[in-house]
Amino acid sequence: MNGILAVLWREYLYFKKRIWSITGSSLVAPLLYLTAFGWGLGRAVNMAGVAYIDFIVPGILALSTMNASFNAVSTPLSIARLYDKTLEEYLVSPITLYSFAAGKILAGALRGMYVGLLLLAVAFVLGANCKLSGLFLLLAFLNCLVFASLGYLVALKIQSHPDMTRFNSFVITPMIFLCGTFFAPEHTPAPLQLLIKALPLTPASQGLRSLALGQELSWYAPALQLLYLVVFIVWGLRASHKVE
Amino acid sequence: MIILDRVTKLHGDKVAVDHLSLHIKPGEFFGLLGPNGAGKTTTLRMITALTPPSVGQITINGHPVSRNNTVFKGQIGLVPQHVNLEPELTVEENLRLHGMLYNMKRDEINRRLAELLEFTELTAERHALANTLSGGMKRKVLIARALMHNPSLLLLDEPTVGLDVFSRRRVWDLIKSLNTRGITILLTTHYLEEAEHLCSRIGLLKKGRLIMTGSVEQLRNMVGPVVVEVFARDRTRLYFFRDQAGALDFASGLTEEFTIRQTSLEDVFVKMTGERVENH
Ligand SMILES: Nc1ncnc2c1ncn2[C@@H]1O[C@H](COP(=O)(O)OP(=O)(O)OP(=O)(O)O)[C@@H](O)[C@H]1O
Ligand SMILES: [Mg+2]
Question: Is Hydrolase given among the entry's keywords (chain B) (predicted)?
Answer without folding.
Answer: no
